[in-house]
Design a protein that fits this description.
The protein has nine helices and eleven strands. With about 230 residues, the chain is an alpha+beta fold. The chain has a domain of about 150 residues: OB fold (Dihydrolipoamide Acetyltransferase, E2P). Helix 3 runs parallel beside helix 5. The protein is elongated, with a radius of gyration of 37 Å.
């Protein structure tokens, strides 16, 4: 009986150690009932997470639907608030490149939160990260669904700033950036002060006169001596 108790205690100890190890190796993230910061950002207490794979309108961005303009950054945040209302959200970190806010993929029950936002039309697929995102084809279909049904930002014209943020840089964009950097460097060089040295002038006649002049020190010595 004593041996059995010893074996059971060892098994329980090993199980506890394994559990602690798994917790230590678990992917960082957050879970609970978050507050909405922006259309693609959530706050869990003091931690802010950003949804990886999509771009929502930022505060101050303007959307246009015909002749009507509206603040689509605020509208996107309100839409996300309605989507997650009274639902628990679970987020897991997906990138170590950006930690503040933490880049995460979030689930609402069994649903990918990105898909719900995209289908509602309040975000665009981030084509910068789409190459490495396994859900990219699905996200693009969700975005097309919102465009076809004129939902959210697709009721009219999305803000050009958002389109630029979500677009993948092209070779032309990279070249333009390089050219802009070169122009900045050239401008810096142009404003640097230039030091001009005056040309060296030599008066040969004066130099010859000095060379042939008697040594006044010697003359003074001779006058005193005699």
């Amino acid at each position: 009986m004593k041996k059995l108790l010893i074996i059971l205690s060892l098994i329980l100890g090993l199980t506890a150690m394994e559990s602690r190890t798994n917790m230590a190796l678990a992917t960082p993230g957050a879970a609970g009932f978050p507050d909405v910061v922006e259309g693609d950002k959530l706050r869990f207490g003091s931690m802010i997470v950003e949804l990886f794979g999509i771009r929502a309108p930022k505060p101050g961005m303007i959307c246009r639907a015909g002749s009507v303009e509206f603040q689509c950054g605020a509208a996107a945040a309100q839409a996300l608030d309605r989507i997650i209302e009274n639902y628990a959200i679970k987020c897991q970190q997906v990138s170590n490149v950006q930690l503040f806010p933490m880049l995460t993929e979030c689930q609402m029950g069994q649903s990918d939160l990105n898909r719900l936002i995209l289908r509602a039309g309040w975000a665009m697929v981030d084509m910068v990260s789409c190459d490495t995102h396994p859900a990219c084809p699905t996200y693009l279909r969700d975005q097309q669904f919102a465009k076809d049904n004129k939902k959210g930002i697709w009721m009219g014209t999305p803000p050009s700033e958002l389109v630029a943020l979500a677009s993948k840089p092209t070779a032309i964009d990279i070249q333009n950036e390089d050219d802009a950097t070169k122009r900045k460097d050239a401008a810096k060089d142009a404003v640097k002060p230039h030091i001009f040295e005056a040309p060296i002038q030599v008066d040969l006649a004066s130099e010859m006169e000095k060379a042939n002049a008697p040594d006044r020190t010697l003359l003074s010595f001779l006058d005193v001596a005699f």
